[in-house]
Design a protein that fits this description.
Order of helices and strands: HEEHHHEEEHEEHHEEEHHHEEH
Largest sheet: 5 strands, antiparallel
Helix content: 40-55%
């Protein structure tokens, strides 16, 4: 049987004991055979107990341990007593004099055993870590609340680190889009291959000049979907020459689709303008020679000095019919242009083609017959003028009616000369 242990009281121990007590740490010694705890008074005093209010045995101390922690605390001691661990260490709750619970971290080691290996003496320390535990709890709660708030964001919270060896690493990922990628390490891998060089280049430029990082790029999701993300962050230089970006990325796929739709609409509008201009030119090119041809044909039919033969009159009739068809085609071109989004039909003014449409309709009417002039054997057929509207003979007509009157006057003059010559 080994000699009893020497008392722990000494000048050096007192100095060490005082220094530890200032940092809320106390030393204890446990005689396992007698269950006596020495130097436990400082711990009990820190818990608010009066001297002598609590016994000085391990059993007395165990009654202060939270019931939920007592079994686990004993198991840790048993593991060390069996030699399975080099040191006993456990964090548990202890009831103070006010009835509250304080968190203690206890460490100890068996320093003396009986010849059969039974533990005889153990020494260790106790430290009050309540403030640290509470700070950790508040930190975890803050992280939980932040994670809940981040989950409500429609975008993606990220933290990217560029180390001194120019290696990119995603250190954090959160937000409503985080489940898309499964983990922070897979985010950069999801960036489209064609966009990866631009992403790295813009990050390098931001790191070199200290400016904000703003980049749009595509990501490919596990199911093959392609989405556009826009990321924005400001760089922070670390002491180890690293650069860290903490920022936010949003899904701009809908915005991209809207831009493409607007571009398609602009292309369609340009095509419509081109079509309208083409129809306008076609209408003009049709009308310009048509007026002259039909006018000369009408003059030839009305010329009494050089009457036409039946075959020639048949040809004039064919010219009139062809002119009416061409006029209708020209009117259709002008109407199509007016109905286009960029046409001039919305101006409210009657276009030339619209007036010509009326003349075309008038030209399609049957020719009117007039009494034969003196000296003539048969009545003279006066074809309707293509420049005369359907109401050209009315006194209320303007423009076309006046033109018809002048044409009739000239025809009357020709008939008078024909009569006098006969």
């Amino acid at each position: 049987m080994s000699a009893p242990a020497a008392p722990l009281h000494s000048a050096e121990f007192a100095l060490l004991h005082e220094a530890l007590a200032q940092s809320s740490t106390w030393v204890w010694s446990w005689d396992i055979a007698s269950d006596e705890l020495t130097e436990i008074g400082g711990t009990l005093e820190a818990l608010g107990y009066a001297p002598g209010a609590i016994g000085s045995t391990q059993s007395d101390w165990d009654r202060l341990i939270h019931p939920e922690d007592l079994a686990r605390n004993f198991e840790r001691y048993a593991e060390h007593a069996r030699g399975e661990t080099n040191m006993y260490e456990q964090c548990y709750r202890v009831r103070d004099a006010a009835g509250g619970w304080r968190w203690f971290v206890e460490r100890g080691r068996i320093v003396e055993r009986a010849p059969d290996g039974t533990p005889r003496r153990m020494v260790g320390t106790q430290a009050d870590v309540t403030e640290r535990i509470e700070a950790e709890r508040r930190g975890r709660e803050a992280e939980r609340q932040l994670a809940q708030l981040a989950a409500q964001l429609p975008g993606l919270l990220f933290r990217i680190r560029l180390d001194g060896a120019n290696q990119l690493q995603v250190e954090g990922l959160g937000g409503g889009l985080a489940p898309w990628f499964g983990g922070a390490e897979s985010w950069l891998d999801a960036v489209d291959v064609e966009d990866q060089p631009r992403l790295v280049e813009t990050l390098a430029h931001s790191a070199a000049h200290g400016g904000a990082w703003d980049c749009e790029f595509r990501v490919r999701l596990p199911k093959g979907q392609v989405r556009w993300l826009r990321a924005h962050a400001r760089p922070e230089r670390g002491a180890d020459a690293s650069t860290v970006w903490s920022g936010y990325a949003e899904d701009v796929s809908v915005h991209r689709e809207l831009q493409r739709s607007r571009q398609d609409t602009a292309v369609m509008a340009a095509a419509s303008r081109t079509k309208g201009e083409l129809l306008s030119r076609m209408s003009h090119e049709l009308r310009t020679p048509l007026h002259a041809v039909l006018g000369f044909a009408q003059l030839m039919e009305l010329d009494a000095d050089a009457p036409l033969s039946p075959a020639q009159r048949e040809r004039m009739r064919a010219i009139r019919e062809a002119g009416a068809t061409s006029a209708c085609c020209s009117t259709s071109c002008s109407t199509s242009r007016a109905s286009s989004p960029t046409g001039s039909g919305s101006s409210g003014r009657t276009s030339t083609s619209a007036r010509w449409g009326g003349s075309a309709r008038a030209s399609c009417r049957s020719p009117r017959r007039t009494p034969a002039p003196r000296g003539s054997r048969s009545p003279t057929t006066v074809p309707a003028s293509p420049c005369t509207t359907s109401r050209g003979s009315s006194s209320r007509s303007s423009g076309s009616g006046a033109s018809t009157a002048r044409t009739g006057a000239r025809a009357s003059g020709w008939r008078c000369r024909a009569a006098s010559s006969g």
